[in-house]
Amino acid sequence: MAAFQRMQALCEADAGKAWGVDLCGPTLLADPATRRFVANMDGLETSLEREGAIFRGRLPDAVPVANTAVKWNGRTWTMLMLPLPQGEPALSILLMHEAWHRIQGQIGLAAAHADQEQLETEQGRLSLRLELRALAAAVAATDPDDRLRATRDALAFRAWRQARFPEARQAEDAMERHEGIAEYTGRLLSQDTAMSAHLADHLRKGDGVAAYARSFAYYTGPAYGVLLDSVSPGWREAWNRHDGLPAMLASALGLAVSAADAAFAENGARYGMDGIRAEEAARAIRQAAASAALRARLVDGPVLVAPVKGASFSFDPNRVTPLPPEGAAYATIRAATAWGVLEVEKDGLLSADWTRLSVQYAGAEAVADGLKGDGWSLALKPGWVLAPGARAGDWTIRAQD
Fold first, then answer.
1. Are 63 and 45 in contact (CB under 8 A)?
2. What DSSP string runs through 103-143?
3. pTM for the whole structure
4. Is 53 helix (H, G, I), strand (E, B) or coil?
């Protein structure tokens, strides 16, 4: 298929230079509606249906259909959801982004999940939107002095935020090492002749995102990576896989970054801070009501609490609302594990440690293979049953005696 051919061509052009390994390997193109897929090679444990140079099959319910890396049938696959983007560079960016996820563990960058509570606050969103605007200016700049000034501003906006939210630096760095580096790699290897202009446009679109908790790194990661390329071309080889991208960029440029209020206000005025502040104040009022409604449904109870430690997940990273300290509400999420599958299309609360997924229990009704509630369905495997939860009115899932 054309997608497999394009992927192989991009990998051959890279020849392992970006990360020291070949990004191409086992790849599945899967239809989320039917779970049918085409693959570029056979499975190791169970043979697939061969059709010329490709292989076909249907994914079991336990395997999530998502743009991701997945272990199944004896291999670690790059999985891509159909339909694929039709145009370039979107197609090539996606192919290389997801190909990187398949090999990230090999290069010392394990998958990471870190809640970003600060990015749901007025201060956090204000500073991130200013950071995105400054990064867009830095990436688009053709004059070195303009690029340096915009880069310094972006780093200062981040420093201001992280000074006010002490745990933010570690959490943000973790997500940029995961999704940020994946998106950077996608853009780096896409053979996009207008990469800087397209990345600047991408950052401007990021300024209007409704929820940043799981999506921010798709914007900041590639920007910091590209800026590092311009000042420290060998940074990937020298990277200890722990230092944050912004810290490495500041060090490479020899910048001392201020987190002071006065500098924040002065720099912010150049990027429309007053307008952003007004927008975020209005949003905070709306979001407070939305968060209260989510908390009433998913925390105050009654709820079904599904144990999901080690489960396979798929979800929409653009529709995640932090609900500290309990975790984060996902508008859509699917969890598959030993007991079966919980499919959520209307709000599920994933605990901060990713071990519990809760849905509203009120109104739930028994169905042939499990339970169906308001915006969710539970399919249980034989040997598993519902049981009363730790709190009166709650339910959970356990192995049958």
1. no
2. HGGGGT--------GGGGSHHHHHHHHHHHHHHHHHHH--S
3. 0.92
4. coil
